[in-house]
Amino acid sequence: xxxxxxxxxxxxxxxxxxxxxxxxxxxxxxxxxxxxxxxxxxxxxxxxxxxxxxxxxxxxxxxxx
Length: 65
Fold this sequence. Notes:
Elements: H1 2-11, H2 15-19, E1 26-27, E2 32-35, E3 44-47, H3 50-63
Antiparallel strand pairs: 1-2, 2-3
Helix pairs in contact: 1-3
């Protein structure tokens, strides 16, 4: 659970935005997350640090098993 909170905190993504993300919305090589359905229906791109990218990669790997 701490992994998810750290990722939200490090990227500034709201909980509802994070729940609507798809793997195609993540660009971990460049440290970017594309939020398509943000507050007010607006889309935006937010940055992440390498630590958050590693946490997301671990989560994606765990989900694919």
